[in-house]
Amino acid sequence: xxxxxxxxISDEIEPERWKSLLNYIEADRRDSIEKFRFYVDKKRSLxxxxxxxxxxxxxxxxxxxxxxxxxxxYGKPYIKGFSNIYFNIxxxxxxxxxxxxxxxxxxDIEKINTNLDIEFFENIFSDEExxxxxxxxxxxxxxxxxxxxxxxxxxxxxxxxxxKELNSFSIILDKKIKIxxxxxxxxxxxxxxxxxxxxxxxxxxSEQCNEHVEKEMTIGEFLDTYYY
Length: 228
Prior knowledge:
Elements lengths: L1 E7 L6 H7 L5 H9 L3 H21 L9 E3 L5 E3 L6 E7 L2 E7 L4 E6 L15 H7 L6 H19 L11 E3 L5 E3 L9 E7 L3 E7 L5 E7 H8 L2
Helix pairs in contact: 2-3, 4-5
């Protein structure tokens, strides 16, 4: 089972509703929300917290009251005490997304920035990947952000965080996306890659991508469905 919800957060949240929504969030996330300077960052964090809770409650309704969130040594969040619930969150620009599964999963979403000097990031890619980015027959920015999100989804899936060097493995863009990593023993890594909205890339790494179910919602649709 692999289930993903992508929420477009571009619409505003009314102040009174915002206050009520905070009641659904654990204390440490409420504190972190208050520390953000900009409203859009507060909103991303709020929706991310609400999204995880809504999805866990939808997929595992009998267990939601017992769930507590923790982070592993490398910072990957997990639910303590349940070996069959795995999730991962990502947000960028106007979108917040969460994937939930009964096996490890990594998800990443990035806003495509065509003003970015991509050559500055060459050292985080393997030689095989960089040749794909710079291929004259391809859209350099599209390939760059495709590879970037795929690499991030893989690192997040294996739960190694910044300890895993991004140039220590290669993603090969093909009809079926492949990975070559000589430092990790692979089992059944699968990838999903697609465009979200006009300028975002979404990548998911899991062992169950063939069973993927996905929803896209506006912020209003999400809140009216799960927090009415």
